[in-house]
Amino acid sequence: MAANGRAAVDKAQAGQFDLILMDIQMPEMDGYEATAALRQGGFDAPIIALTAHALASDRQRCLDAGCTDYLSKPIDRVRLVRTVTRHARGRSAARQDGQASGPSAAAGDGETIRSQLADDPDLAEIIGEFVADLGNQAEAMRQALAHGHHGELRRLAHQIKGAGGSYGYPSLTDSARELERAAKAEDTEAAVIALRQLELLCQAIVRGRAQGSHAKTTEG
After folding, report:
1. Long-range contacts of 122-125 (CB under 8 A, 24+ apart)
2. CB of 165 within 8 A of CB of 93?
3. 44-86 pLDDT, tens per residue?
4. Least confident of 88-102, 106-120, 189-203
5. Where are the domains of the chain?
6. How far from the centroid of its chain's Cα atoms is residue 155's Cα?
């Protein structure tokens, strides 16, 4: 527990945490500022925003600040447990996948990828929402790269990196990590290659989601 946002940042930077529940309404430094500070400092574990605001614009503001997910108050205990479990499990899967496979490879034409969590009925809806938004996120990254906005590209790639494993797509996390690294270095050539790989993975994930149990390949 931290008394305010500044204390939360100090504690997170001083210790090792697998996940943070970030109250957006905090004194001294609010949750948006605290999350942004942690991300700028290299903290890459899931950060779940807890806020009294439930509008779509509030959710987007949390994601833009660097939060991995969002829960509105009053907090439903069952949903909280499921959300924490999903992100913790996804982070563990992403670590194992990264250690086993090394750099990510682009999906081939026509290949499909299913979520490792696809068989969990409690997660079906939110996985579907995540996959449905991948096209918009890919377009935003293309625009950022086209206009030379490396900082924005890095931020967008970081969001995908944090969310990929949490939704059962560790290869997406690995690919986004490569794009984030290229954007941080302002290496446009490497970013173009990394973004293309990420786009191919997104397309394979969308196909896998559409085909469901008929997917040709499954991660894991």
Report:
1. 122/82, 123/82, 123/86, 123/167, 123/168
2. yes
3. 888 999 988 877 788 888 988 889 888 988 888 888 888 888 7
4. 88-102
5. 1-75, 103-220
6. 10
